[in-house]
Amino acid sequence: MKGLVYRGPGLKALEDVPNPRIEAPTDAIVRITSTTICGSDLHILKGDVPTVQPGTVLGHEGVGIIEEVGDAVQSFKKGDHVLISCISACGKCDFCRRGMYSHCVNAGWVLGHTLHGTQAEFVRIPFAETSLHRIPEGMDEEALVMLSDILPTGFECGVLNGKVSPGCTVAIVGAGPVGLAALLTAQFYSPAEIIMIDLDDNRLEVARTFGATKTVNSGDGRAADVVKALTGGAGVDVAIEAVGIPTTFVLCQDIVAAGGTIANVGVHGAKADLHLEKLWAHNITITTRLVDTVTTPMLLKTVQSRKLDPKKLITHRFKMKDMLEAYDTFQRAAATNALKVIIQP
Ligand SMILES: [Zn+2]
Ligand SMILES: [Zn+2]
Predict the structure, then answer these.
(1) What is the CATH number of the domain that holds 335?
(2) pLDDT mean over 284-302
(3) What order do you get walking across the sheet with 236-241 strand by strand?
């Protein structure tokens, strides 16, 4: 079969790779019908994630049809339409029993990381019973690809950890796919204001159509002053960091109101300053988290009932044979206006 293979920092290729086989009785083999590319895949390609071995098929998002299941898999059978979670979970270890699937000692983020991923014709899913979700009849498959990773990530790490609540003021720093996913799901709780902050005017424009009440281009370095002015000098109750660089984490510290929460979502590769000399008496909370995908079944229902429309995050579509073009388009997002790209056989 064909798969998008990581070949070391800066190197990738669409290659012939062996078809996956059942290796444990808890495995399932899924034939991919839609997948996508994540910002994390670009981090891997830069060489930022050394735990990914050259030769690994990338990808941790997708939807497909079950081709085969191991002897211990009872909830799924060949032919079932399933959503693949970016986090695989054994369901039995101490962390899984606490709902912290991302810290599962037997799995966690393994797809496209330590195991071959979803950017291929087939993928082996470990612990299939607790790592796949059945797709109800008649649902839009493309929309559901957004539920593998970005929607639960924006919701769990940003909105839930940030304690977004009715009437509160929220700022989301970073209007990429995950920041926009936080924007969409924050609206479950009816905040009074959602201020979107980014360097890219196109993404800010998109954020307006997704429900941002105000947008701030941070290119001039004055975003903190603007947010303070927009909030009567108080700052925001919830500052969601969805970029992952030191300056955006510091910006969150500059705009969080007394008693507020900074919810970090971004993947940080470098150390960032924490200004305790300003914040020690400010009653703030800082949260960090890796997505556990515990909210995926709930998010599935909100898509099914049309309370949430994640399909609007999709800007481009490609065939699997054009995967390299899909990467190029996603990588040059500032020029191509790409948010999420859908890749299908
Ligand atoms: Zn991802
Ligand atoms: Zn576990």
Answers:
(1) 3.90.180.10
(2) 97
(3) 214-217, 193-198, 169-173, 236-241, 256-264, 285-287
Quote the pTM value: 0.97
Write out the residue range of the structural domain in which residue 208 sits: 151-287
Q: What angle do CA 244, 295, 103 make, to 5 degrees?
A: 60
The answer, yes or no, to whether residue 269 has pLDDT greater than 90, is no
Mean pLDDT over all residues of the chain? Answer: 97
**167 and 280: one domain?**
yes
State pLDDT tens for residues 33-69: 999 999 999 999 999 899 999 999 999 999 999 999 9
Ligand closest to the CA atom of residue 147: 1
- The Cα 82–Cα 92 span in angstroms is 22
Q: Which residues pair with 2 in a beta bridge?
A: 16
Considering its fold, how many domains does the chain have in total?
Answer: 2
Residues with CB under 5 Å of ion ligand 1 are 38, 40, 149
Å from CA of 150 to ligand 1 middle? 6
User: Under 8 Å CB-to-CB from 146, ≥6 apart: which residues?
Assistant: 36, 181, 310, 311, 313, 314, 340
Q: Is the pLDDT of residue 282 over 90?
A: yes
pLDDT for 248 equals 98
Distance of CA 119 from the midpoint of ligand 1 (Å): 12
Distance between Cα 154 and ligand 1 center (Å): 11
The pLDDT tens digits for 145-204 are 999 999 999 999 999 999 999 999 999 999 999 999 999 999 999 999 999 999 999 999
From ligand 1's centre to the CA of 2, what distance in Å?
21
Residues β-bridged to residue 216? 197
Cα 104 to ligand 2 centre (Å): 4
- Ligand 2 geometric centre to CA of 98 (Å): 9
For residues 102 and 229, membership in a common domain is answered with no
